[in-house]
Write a structure and sequence with these properties.
By secondary structure, the chain is of the alpha+beta class. It folds into two domains: about 110 residues, 2-Layer Sandwich (D-amino Acid Aminotransferase, Chain A, domain 1); about 160 residues, D-amino Acid Aminotransferase, subunit A, domain 2 (D-amino Acid Aminotransferase, Chain A, domain 2, Alpha-Beta Barrel), CATH 3.20.10.10. The chain contains eight helices and 15 strands. The strands form two sheets. Strands 7, 8, 9, 10, 11, 12, 13, 14 and 15 form a nine-stranded mixed beta sheet that branches. The structure holds 4'-deoxy-4'-aminopyridoxal-5'-phosphate (PMP). The site of 4'-deoxy-4'-aminopyridoxal-5'-phosphate has 14 residues, from helix 6 and strand 13.
């Protein structure tokens, strides 16, 4: 079951007009929200980032947070799996094709649920491969825009190389992955690029940094050079669907000894414990 413009229906029944600006221009924004045991994880943070993305493209938020919560809650109930991945998209609606904003349109609002596919034990225990590529995206990567063609092309480079992610370098500095944020452990310190217009402010990125601060994991926000990435003790990628994954090969060479590092193992355990605690609190 999905939600489209005020109605819940089976996905096979859901259609949008061809003149939707999401289809014509990629003129929209989105969120991906994991649901564990029917509980949307960090929903407040996702709705806050949705608002920031809508502000970024000058589109009025069609719903108050309470209305979003209500629709999302209902959709989670209408779908079977206990663990779900919610995809939520808002576009600038349907209008005659012209670049300029239409004078009056109703935004298109779409929410779908898919079964949440967590990282596999093999990915967690052995890590994944990554490659690097030049970050050739626009300069507003902090907006979670549905215009993802650059990200799609960059991710495909990783797939073609038999890898899981492409890590992006802009002016010799690490920005993020094609669909993830990136962390590095160097000289025992957890490093991440500071938030800027050149990366998406990840919900998982924030949580990892919160957990680091709360548990005395030495960490620092600063630029990470290509050389530092290549010589890192550990590299991780993070996202709502992949949680935290260790990168154990980079451009075909092992990262350190080619095994997930001890800082990763600690953070992975802290993350799982945090999730369990949130669910215990919510479900009593
Ligand atoms: N950067 C990009 C480009 C992404 O697509 C994603 C995943 N949506 C992330 C970072 C990670 O963000 P989050 O932790 O909120 O899923």
């Amino acid at each position: 079951m999905i939600y489209l413009n005020g109605e819940f229906m089976p996905i096979e029944k859901a259609v949008i007009p061809v003149l939707d600006r999401g289809f014509i221009f990629g003129d929209g924004v989105y969120e991906v929200i994991p649901v564990y045991s029917r509980l949307p994880f960090r929903l407040g943070e996702h709705l806050e980032r949705l608002q920031a993305s809508l502000d970024g493209i000058r589109l009025e938020n069609p719903h108050e947070d309470s209305a979003w919560q209500e629709k999302i809650g209902r959709l989670v109930e209408l779908n079977e799996p206990e663990d779900q991945s919610l995809y939520l998209q808002v576009t600038r609606g349907v209008a005659r094709r012209a670049h300029a904003f239409p004078a009056r349109t109703t935004p298109t609002v779409f929410i779908m649920s898919s079964p949440l596919l967590p990282p596999t034990p093999n990915q967690i225990n052995n890590g994944v491969g990554a490659i690097t590529a030049a970050d050739n995206r626009w300069a507003r990567c902090n907006v979670k825009s549905t215009s993802l063609l650059p990200n799609v092309l960059l991710r495909q480079l990783a797939i073609d190389a038999g890898c899981a992610e492409t890590l992006l370098l802009r002016d010799g500095q690490l920005t993020e992955g094609s669909a993830s944020n990136a962390f590095v452990v160097s000289n025992g310190i957890l490093l991440a690029p500071p938030k800027s217009n050149l990366m998406l402010p990840g919900i998982t990125y924030d949580l990892v940094l919160e957990l680091a601060a709360a548990n005395n994991v030495a960490h620092e926000l600063r630029n990470i050079s290509e050389a530092e990435l290549a010589g890192a003790d550990e590299i991780w990628i993070t996202s709502s669907s992949r949680e935290i994954l260790p990168v154990t090969t980079l451009n075909g060479r092992p990262v350190n000894d080619g095994r997930p590092g001890h800082v990763f193992k600690r953070m992975h355990a802290l993350y799982q414990e945090y999730k369990a605690q949130v669910m215990r609190t919510a479900h009593g």
